[in-house]
Write a structure and sequence with these properties.
By secondary structure, the chain is an alpha+beta fold. It is about 30% helix and about 15% strand.
């Protein structure tokens, strides 16, 4: 099994199979609109703009799991992200990311890396390598533009 074996529904309601990005690294981030880490949307957009031409995909996965900080509908989330942070990287519909009802991708991540790697709060980041393996995981406090993340992205793009 690999990170490309999973599918979401886009925030616009379309099928969003991760397989469409096979061969490209994907930075998956569980997001929320009303969190202290919400300004990281700006950093995520900067990473997307910096690396997308080289093949990186940034995927935002809105979740209301932590502190009920993503209460809105898909349309409200999309409007918030575009209006406040000019987000144009792909977003999924709102998902559960922890526990037995978590989206299968997040259950796979926890199985691969251990339960301690499951999201503990909003804006937890996971890098899926071009081959579908997990190439990194970073907690909320590590900004998307941090050298640890951009270094892992550079390594993943070089393979």
């Amino acid at each position: 099994m690999s990170g490309f074996d999973f599918e979401f529904t886009s925030i616009e309601g379309e099928k969003l199979p991760l397989a469409q990005w096979r061969g490209h690294p994907v930075l998956v981030v569980n997001t929320a609109s009303f969190c202290g880490y919400t300004p990281q949307y700006q950093d995520l957009e900067a990473v997307w703009q910096s690396y997308r031409a080289r093949g990186l995909v940034v995927l935002g996965v809105p979740s209301n799991d932590f502190g009920a900080q993503e209460p809105g509908s898909a349309a409200e989330i999309k409007q918030f992200c575009e209006g406040n942070y000019a987000v144009d990287f792909p977003l999924t519909e709102k998902q559960t990311v922890v526990g037995k009802d978590a989206h299968p991708l997040f259950r796979w991540i926890a199985a691969e890396l251990g339960e301690a790697a499951a999201p503990r709060w909003n804006f937890h980041k996971y890098l899926i390598a071009a081959d579908g393996s997990l190439a990194g995981a970073w907690p909320s406090k590590v900004r998307p533009t941090d050298a640890a993340i951009t270094g892992a992205i550079e390594t993943a793009l070089a393979k």
